[in-house]
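Contributing new records

If you add data, match the layout below exactly. Sequence lines come first and carry their own label; structure lines follow with theirs. Keep one chain per record. Anything else will be rejected by the validation script.
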Amino acid sequence: MSADVAARALPQPAGRPTPARAPERTLRPVTATGARRKPKLAYALIALAGAMAIGAAQIALSLAITQDSFTIAQLSTQQRELNLQSHALQEELTGLSSPQLLAANAADLGMVVAGSASYLRLSDGAVFGAGTGAGWQSTVDPKGAGAISNALLPSAPVETPPPDAGTGSQTPASELPPSITDGLPSPTTR
C-alpha cells in the first residue's frame, strides 16, 4: 500500500499530448438560390405611415414654435409701450404733485401766503402766534417774473370749479388783490 501511494505521489512522465479534434465545418457552398419571399405590403404601409406621421409632427411643432415666437414678440412690444405710458404717467404725476403747481393753483384760487403761523390749543382754546388772518397781498407770487419754469407742469392752468351762485361762498375775482408780476418783492436800497 505504501508503494501504491508513493507511485501516485511521483509525477507521471510526460506523455504525448492527445491531438484535439478539429470541429467539423458546417458551411457548405450554395448550389441553388432559395425561393424568394414576397414582401408583405402591410409592413411597407406601416413604415410609410410612421414616416409621414413623424414629418407631420415636426411640421406641427415648427408651426407652434413659430406662432409662439410671434406672440412673444407682440407681447414684448405691448410691454414696451405700457412701460413708456407708465413712465409718462409717472412724470405727469410728479409734475401734478409738485409744490410749485400747488402754489400756482392756490394763487389762481386767490389764496395768499400768510406771514406767520398761528396755533390753537384745543384744551382751553388759546391762540398762539399772530392770531390774525392773512392780508390781501401775498409775499410770494409763484407765477411772477422771478418764477422758475418747471417742464413737468402742464402748460394750461388747472380748471377751477365754477363759483356756487346760491351760497356766495366764493370771493368774486374783482375783489382779489392784484398779483405781483415783477417777481418777489424786495426792499429798495440805495
